[in-house]
Amino acid sequence: NKDNHDDGLAIQEAKPKLKIPPLYKVILLNDDFTPMDFVVEVLMVFFAMSEELATHVMLQIHTQGVGVCGTYTKDVAETKVVIVNEYSREHQHPLLCSMEAV
Ligand code: TYC
Fold it and tell me: Given its phi and psi angles, is residue 92 left (phi above 0), alpha (psi -120 to 50 degrees) or beta?
Protein backbone atom coordinates (compact mmCIF):
# COMPACT_ATOMS: atom_id res chain seq x y z
CA ASN A 1 0.00 0.00 0.00
CA LYS A 2 2.29 2.75 -1.23
CA ASP A 3 -0.43 5.43 -1.03
CA ASN A 4 -0.76 5.12 2.72
CA HIS A 5 2.55 6.30 4.16
CA ASP A 6 1.34 7.14 7.63
CA ASP A 7 0.21 3.82 9.00
CA GLY A 8 3.44 3.29 10.91
CA LEU A 9 4.10 -0.12 9.37
CA ALA A 10 6.77 -1.25 6.96
CA ILE A 11 5.35 -0.89 3.49
CA GLN A 12 6.28 -3.55 0.99
CA GLU A 13 5.33 -3.46 -2.65
CA ALA A 14 4.02 -6.67 -4.21
CA LYS A 15 6.47 -7.11 -7.09
CA PRO A 16 6.03 -9.73 -9.75
CA LYS A 17 8.75 -12.36 -9.38
CA LEU A 18 10.44 -12.76 -12.75
CA LYS A 19 13.84 -14.02 -11.70
CA ILE A 20 15.66 -16.22 -14.19
CA PRO A 21 16.45 -19.51 -12.45
CA PRO A 22 20.12 -20.42 -12.02
CA LEU A 23 21.34 -23.04 -14.49
CA TYR A 24 23.46 -26.14 -14.00
CA LYS A 25 25.63 -28.09 -16.41
CA VAL A 26 25.13 -31.84 -16.29
CA ILE A 27 28.47 -33.51 -16.97
CA LEU A 28 29.78 -37.00 -17.63
CA LEU A 29 33.19 -38.10 -16.40
CA ASN A 30 35.53 -40.35 -18.33
CA ASP A 31 36.58 -43.71 -16.93
CA ASP A 32 38.55 -46.68 -18.25
CA PHE A 33 35.76 -49.26 -18.19
CA THR A 34 32.41 -48.00 -19.46
CA PRO A 35 31.95 -49.10 -23.09
CA MET A 36 31.83 -46.28 -25.62
CA ASP A 37 28.54 -47.62 -27.00
CA PHE A 38 26.93 -47.37 -23.57
CA VAL A 39 27.95 -43.71 -23.19
CA VAL A 40 26.55 -42.94 -26.65
CA GLU A 41 23.30 -44.67 -25.67
CA VAL A 42 23.07 -42.62 -22.45
CA LEU A 43 23.61 -39.37 -24.34
CA MET A 44 20.93 -40.29 -26.89
CA VAL A 45 18.33 -41.62 -24.43
CA PHE A 46 18.70 -39.16 -21.52
CA PHE A 47 19.99 -36.05 -23.29
CA ALA A 48 18.11 -36.26 -26.59
CA MET A 49 21.23 -36.24 -28.76
CA SER A 50 21.46 -37.63 -32.28
CA GLU A 51 23.83 -40.60 -32.67
CA GLU A 52 26.30 -38.31 -34.46
CA LEU A 53 26.33 -35.67 -31.71
CA ALA A 54 26.37 -38.32 -28.96
CA THR A 55 29.41 -39.97 -30.57
CA HIS A 56 31.18 -36.59 -30.82
CA VAL A 57 30.46 -35.74 -27.16
CA MET A 58 31.46 -39.24 -25.98
CA LEU A 59 34.83 -38.99 -27.80
CA GLN A 60 35.36 -35.52 -26.36
CA ILE A 61 34.81 -36.90 -22.83
CA HIS A 62 37.08 -39.85 -23.63
CA THR A 63 39.94 -37.54 -24.65
CA GLN A 64 39.34 -34.52 -22.37
CA GLY A 65 38.16 -36.35 -19.24
CA VAL A 66 34.84 -34.57 -18.87
CA GLY A 67 32.06 -33.27 -21.09
CA VAL A 68 28.81 -31.33 -20.90
CA CYS A 69 25.59 -33.22 -21.66
CA GLY A 70 23.31 -30.22 -21.32
CA THR A 71 22.33 -27.20 -19.22
CA TYR A 72 19.19 -27.29 -17.10
CA THR A 73 17.43 -25.77 -14.13
CA LYS A 74 18.44 -27.25 -10.76
CA ASP A 75 15.56 -29.72 -10.38
CA VAL A 76 15.92 -31.06 -13.92
CA ALA A 77 19.72 -31.34 -13.61
CA GLU A 78 19.45 -33.18 -10.27
CA THR A 79 16.94 -35.62 -11.74
CA LYS A 80 19.15 -36.30 -14.79
CA VAL A 81 22.14 -37.01 -12.52
CA VAL A 82 20.19 -39.49 -10.39
CA ILE A 83 18.59 -41.28 -13.33
CA VAL A 84 21.83 -41.60 -15.31
CA ASN A 85 23.80 -42.86 -12.29
CA GLU A 86 21.06 -45.39 -11.45
CA TYR A 87 20.97 -46.55 -15.07
CA SER A 88 24.77 -46.99 -15.17
CA ARG A 89 24.78 -48.94 -11.90
CA GLU A 90 21.94 -51.17 -13.09
CA HIS A 91 24.15 -52.07 -16.05
CA GLN A 92 27.27 -52.54 -13.85
CA HIS A 93 29.15 -49.65 -15.43
CA PRO A 94 31.14 -47.11 -13.36
CA LEU A 95 30.05 -44.17 -15.57
CA LEU A 96 29.67 -41.08 -13.38
CA CYS A 97 27.27 -38.21 -14.01
CA SER A 98 27.48 -34.98 -12.02
CA MET A 99 26.44 -31.33 -12.19
CA GLU A 100 27.96 -27.91 -11.63
CA ALA A 101 26.62 -24.37 -11.51
CA VAL A 102 26.98 -22.43 -14.77
N1 TYC B 1 37.02 -44.29 -21.74
C2 TYC B 1 35.98 -45.25 -22.06
C3 TYC B 1 36.58 -46.39 -22.89
O4 TYC B 1 37.67 -46.28 -23.38
C5 TYC B 1 34.82 -44.61 -22.83
C6 TYC B 1 34.12 -43.55 -22.05
C7 TYC B 1 33.76 -42.35 -22.66
C8 TYC B 1 33.77 -43.75 -20.72
C9 TYC B 1 33.07 -41.35 -21.97
C10 TYC B 1 33.10 -42.77 -20.00
O11 TYC B 1 32.06 -40.62 -19.94
C12 TYC B 1 32.73 -41.58 -20.64
N13 TYC B 1 35.83 -47.48 -23.07
Answer: left
Q: Which residue type occupies 93?
A: H
User: Rg (Cα) of the chain, in Å, rounded?
Assistant: 21
Atom of ligand 1 nearest to the CA of 34: 8
The residue contributing the CA closest to ligand 1 atom 7 is: 62
Q: How much is the ipTM here?
A: 0.98
Nearest of 96, 99, 35 to residue 65 by alpha carbon:
96
Angle at 82 between CA 78 and CA 87, to 5 degrees: 150
Verdict on whether the full-model pTM lies above 0.90 = no
Distance between CA atoms of 61 and 58, rounded to whole angstroms? 5
pLDDT at 91 over 70: yes
H-only helix segments in 1-102: 36-47, 51-64, 74-90
